[in-house]
Every structure is written in structure tokens, then in C-alpha cells.
Design a protein that fits this description.
Layout lengths: L16 H11 L4 H8 L3 H9 L6 H10 L4 H10 L17 H13 L5 E4 L5 E4 L21 H6 L11 H19 L2 H11 L26 E5 L2 E11 L6 H4 L2 E7 L2 H11 L1
Antiparallel strand pairs: 1-2, 1-5, 3-4, 4-5
Length: 276
């Protein structure tokens, strides 16, 4: 039987459902009129729901949560605040109910070889990785590889990959910008604390990135590359993110697959030879 997920501190506990709805509306940058148009209801009804003069039905609450793109975990929090039972289950990836999802993740990761790919949860904790990732982690401090492994910490920590990233300043700015967008959309305090930690890391000795301009034909306004020194030579990679867009389980909805592709022929060849 799945455990009932908690709010995990994303929004202050004990708030009435109207206040939570208002918080999500403001977080999405919508006026009451905007949300009313999106949800096909009156502005007056939105106002009454937010002030507590009206109580939403279960169906209306789900409808508004969909229009506000509220994460499944927080949709459960909205339902509980309104006096309803949680709707979305939360299974561990190792549970029998997640066997098909786990197999899908394994197929995606393995199918991406010889290029690196990994799966992470909403806090950037490593869930799984393919065989191409391990060779890139040679020399990383053992404590950073002890579970749970946070891949952003691994990337920017002085004992992690930081000293081997050829465009560290550019990559750091990209990571922090992406993390900030995630925090703005979720109000997750764990991510906010992680960002504070990452911002405090020192610049690696010998870094001469100079802020991360255009390098070797790469255009940072199109894609930010990761230039990583490895035993196989300098690797130039760009990343893509895959999520389960139709997931109705909290764990699966928060899972992301980060896949890296070679940005040039030399990197592709080096990765193929390294895995072989």
C-alpha cells in the first residue's frame, strides 16, 4: 500500500487551501483574471476561493491545480488542505508497482551508451547512471560519491569535477540559473539550501574561463556546453532533459533523465573508445 506523501516543507504547513491557491497563482505570475480565463470560471469565483468565502470541490481543485501546473506532490497538499484525501500515490522505484517505469529508465540509460546519461530526483540526487558515467568520475573525492550522491554538488564542488571543467564559470552560471528557475517554480527549501551551498564554492585554481564566452564555435545563447577534461582527453558535451510527462505517481513525475551528447566528432570518438 503506497505511503501518503507529505508536503515536504514546500509551502507553510497549516495554510488554508485558498491561501495555497493564491501562492501558486502568484508564483506562476497570473492575475485572478488570468487564472479565471485559463480555468473557464469567473474572476469572482477565483476571488471567493482564495479568500475562503467559497470552498472548492475536489474536481475544481484538481482543475485549478492543472491550470497552475502544480506538481503532483503539492496537489496532494492542496487536497489535504481542503479536507480531501490525497489523490496521487508515491512508490519507491524499487517497488513492484514501478517495475515497468524502472525498466524504461534502464532502457533509456543503456540505450544512450557510449554517451553518459543519468537519472535524478527532484533534489538532483542520483538515482541511476549508465556505464559511460563512471569513467568521468575518476579522481572525485570518495565522500562525494557516497550515497546519496547529489550531481550538482558533484559538478561544482572543489573535490568533485570543478577542477576539470574547462569552462567552469560558464557551467556554474548555467547550473545556478537552472536551479534558480526550479526554485522559483517549486519554492522547494531543499533546493534553495543547495543553491546557497553551491554559490559558496570557490573558483578552482587555474580557472581561466573568464566568464564563459563563446568557445570553439559554441554559442552560449543556444546551448551551454560542458567542457570536461578526462583521461580520454577534453570532452565537449551538451545535455538534454527527459521527464515522464504523463506520470500519475509522485516519484515518477519528479524523475528526470539527464543525457549528454557529444558536441563534436572528437568527443564522440573519445567516448566510444573509453567505453570500449
Amino acid at each position: 500500500m503506497p505511503a501518503i506523501p507529505s508536503n515536504h516543507g514546500r509551502l507553510p504547513a497549516g495554510q488554508p487551501v485558498g491561501a495555497l491557491l493564491r501562492s501558486w497563482r502568484l508564483r506562476r505570475g497570473l492575475s485572478q483574471l488570468d487564472l479565471a480565463c485559463e480555468a473557464d470560471i469567473s474572476t469572482r469565483h477565483v476571488s471567493f476561493l482564495e479568500t475562503g468565502r467559497s470552498q472548492p470541490s475536489r474536481g475544481m481543485l484538481i482543475h485549478l491545480a492543472e491550470r497552475l501546473d502544480v506538481p503532483l506532490r503539492d496537489r496532494n497538499a492542496l487536497l489535504v488542505a481542503a479536507g480531501f484525501a490525497p489523490l496521487y500515490s508515491e512508490h519507491g522505484l524499487d517497488s513492484p508497482a514501478m517495475r515497468a517505469a524502472r525498466k524504461a529508465v534502464e532502457l533509456v540509460l543503456t540505450g544512450h551508451e557510449p554517451f553518459p546519461a543519468l537519472a535524478v530526483d527532484r533534489h538532483w540526487t542520483l538515482v541511476a547512471a549508465n556505464r559511460a558515467v563512471a569513467p568521468l568520475l575518476d579522481g572525485v573525492a570518495a565522500e562525494l560519491l557516497a550515497p546519496p550522491v547529489n550531481v550538482l554538488r558533484l559538478s561544482l564542488h572543489p573535490g568533485g569535477l570543478a577542477g576539470r571543467i574547462g569552462n567552469w564559470a560558464q557551467w556554474r552560471a548555467h547550473v545556478l540559473s537552472r536551479l534558480t528557475r526550479q526554485i522559483d517554480g517549486s519554492a522547494d527549501p531543499v533546493l534553495a539550501a543547495l543553491r546557497d551551498e553551491l554559490q559558496g564554492y570557490p573558483t578552482p585554481a587555474g580557472d581561466d574561463d573568464g566568464g564563459g564566452g563563446d568557445e570553439d564555435g559554441h554559442h552560449p545563447d543556444v546551448v551551454v556546453p560542458l567542457r570536461l577534461r578526462s583521461a580520454a582527453g577534453m570532452l565537449s558535451l551538451f545535455g538534454t532533459t527527459t521527464v515522464f510527462g504523463t506520470a500519475v505517481d509522485i516519484t515518477l513525475s519528479e524523475l528526470a533523465i539527464e543525457a549528454f551528447f557529444p558536441a563534436d566528432a572528437e568527443t564522440a570518438d573519445r567516448l566510444r573508445r573509453a567505453l570500449a
